[in-house]
Amino acid sequence: MAEDLNLSTTLSKEGKYEELIPQLKALITGENDLIANLANVSAGLKEGFNFLWVGFYLVKKDELVLGPFQGPVACTRIQKGKGVCGVSWEKAETIIVPDVEKFEGHIACSSFSKSEIVIPIIKNKQVVAVLDVDSSELNTFDEVDSKYLSSLLNEIIF
């Protein structure tokens, strides 16, 4: 497959996911390197939706460690239960934050981040990583994002 994405600018959010996910799946099919795949998924989601920041934090011992991402520089390490990512890891559940300023304990890696979604990636009943997506606008994320991003992670990443 060519390393280009074909994305329509006129689709609904759901339509964009339905157009993008098969392309991401084709892009990483046959590639066994996790870091390469996470990097391409980050880039594809950022390009497809123009999010502020898209990336992965990998569980390493007792903390989340920054993995492949697209966007401004980011926090390198996050403790369990700290910030949106750490809480998502601790609870093993997706967290949607409409306004990061109202999330107690939010870690401000970028002052431009206004809303966020974090989805844990679970393998063998353990969180092994989280996908973190930030937007520069309030109220960007909803159940549509949760549904499609969870599907993407569960079907083609791990």
Briefly characterize the structure.
This protein is an alpha+beta fold and 158 residues long.
Give the ordered list of helices and strands: HHEEEHEEEH
Which homologous superfamily in CATH is the superfamily? GAF domain
In whole angstroms, the N-to-C terminal distance is 21 Å
Query: Helix fraction?
Result: 25-40%
Q: From the alpha-carbon coordinates, what is the Rg to the nearest angstrom?
A: 15 Å
Form type = globular
Strand order of the largest sheet: 3-2-1-6-5-4
Enter the CATH topology name.
Beta-Lactamase
Overall tally of domains: 1
Q: Any chance you could write out the topology, listing elements then pairs?
A:
Elements: H1 13-28, H2 34-49, E1 53-60, E2 63-70, E3 77-79, H3 83-91, E4 95-97, E5 115-123, E6 126-135, H4 143-157
Helix pairs in contact: 1-2, 1-4
Explain this structure to me?
The protein has 158 residues and is an alpha+beta fold. The protein has a single domain (13-157), classed as Beta-Lactamase (2-Layer Sandwich). Helix content is 35%, strand content 26%. It is built from 4 helices and 6 strands. It has helices at 13-28, 34-49, 83-91, 143-157; strands spanning 53-60, 63-70, 77-79, 95-97, 115-123, 126-135. The chain has a 6-stranded antiparallel β-sheet with strand order 3-2-1-6-5-4, sandwiched between helices. β1 (53-60) and β2 form a beta hairpin. α1 packs antiparallel against α2 (34-49) and α1 (13-28) packs parallel to α4. The longest helix has 16 residues, at 13-28. The model has no long low-confidence stretch (mean pLDDT 91).
